[in-house]
Please model this.
Amino acid sequence: MAARGKGNRENQVYSNRVVRSEFDKNWRSVITGSGYFVYIAKRNNAQVTVLLTTGAEKLITFNKGGKVFVGSGGVSHYTKPHWVKNL
Model:
């Protein structure tokens, strides 16, 4: 279901196909003891653009407190809810 042009709403998902991610200025980051980088949205409409191994590019939008966990090998976990739009 689309919400005000943000894209399709998705619940918690993961991907092992991420080649590159670019976060806007609305994020802070921490590293966990298990080696994950965790990006935490500082405000609503925090966005990250991801490039997948398929060549697809997606814009992912989070509300304040949303998290992206990034591990080795292109593995990323996205907390719920978030919105995804194909670019």
Q: What stands out?
A: DSSP finds no helices and ten strands in the chain. The chain has a mean pLDDT of 89.
